[in-house]
Amino acid sequence: MNVRQNELRLTVEIRQVTDAVECVFHSLLLHRTLGRFHYNSDKEFSLGSIGIKEVNCEQIDMTYVRVNSTELAMCVDEDIRQFKYEVDEATCSGSIPRRTPTVGSPTDTAIPLLSAQIGLQFYTKAKRQSMGAVVGSWLGAGSGGSADDGSVWEEWKLILDVFRVESIDELQKMRQRVADDIGEKVLDICEHVNHNHYTPKMPTRNEIPDIFETRFSDCQPYLFKIRRQAVPPMATKQTLAQAAMSRWKDILAV
Predict the structure, then answer these.
(1) Residues 6+ apart with CB under 8 A from 112
(2) What are phi and psi of 29, to 5 degrees?
(3) Model confidence over 231-254: pLDDT tens digits?
């Protein structure tokens, strides 16, 4: 299955980062989450229902709808809180390299801070390990439960151009402006995700963990991974395990 890659871009005030990401990601997960599977046989099943919940944003004049699952919300929001922390840390530190916004200022006196990225990937687990993956696990290079273990079939990249405004009037303008922008993005999301032929086929009983997240008691979203990148990735030296893994891949490719 080919990867469907989508890119969304928003201009936000730094206090709006959390609301903006939560709104976009929970809107996506609303379309990528099903009720619990109840199998009558290996291939015959029924689906439980999922509830929905309206959430009022704190820093943006809008309300969005998410899956009414405290467990799912806590899982997603923890990654978003960490992303916000990394954004705050990057803006406060003069030594951390960062991307500057490439868009125009949203208000007359808004101060550009940085351009940050966060992504939501949906993936399926590999049905069986390749020799390279086995070698990687021997060397401690494995990363269980991540999209690196399987095949990503859909990816959403959210780019945030982050500014700071000082006046209450400008912040109020940003509250409405960002609400309008996110509203358009959510409509785009609805248009793109409602194509069933892009999603993995429904699994048999044994295939459930390869396609759906099973740790939540009240819903089953497609397997997903959040990728944070508040600052540009730093070049790092290869560890011994990484070098050995790279060498094994070269050997196996011959």
Answers:
(1) 100, 101, 105, 161, 162, 163
(2) -65, -25
(3) 776 544 455 666 666 665 566 555
Residue range of the domain that includes 48: 4-126+149-234
- Say what the pLDDT of residue 149 is: 63
Q: How many CB atoms lie within 10 A of CB 106?
A: 20
Residue 206 within a domain: yes
Rounded to whole angstroms, how far apart are CA atoms 205 and 132?
28
Between the CA of residue 226 and those of 26, 31, 150, what are the distances in Å? 12, 16, 15
Q: Is residue 40 part of a domain?
A: yes
State which amino acid sits at residue 233.
P
Contact 29, 76 (CB under 8 A): yes
Q: 108 near 136, Cβ under 8 Å?
A: no
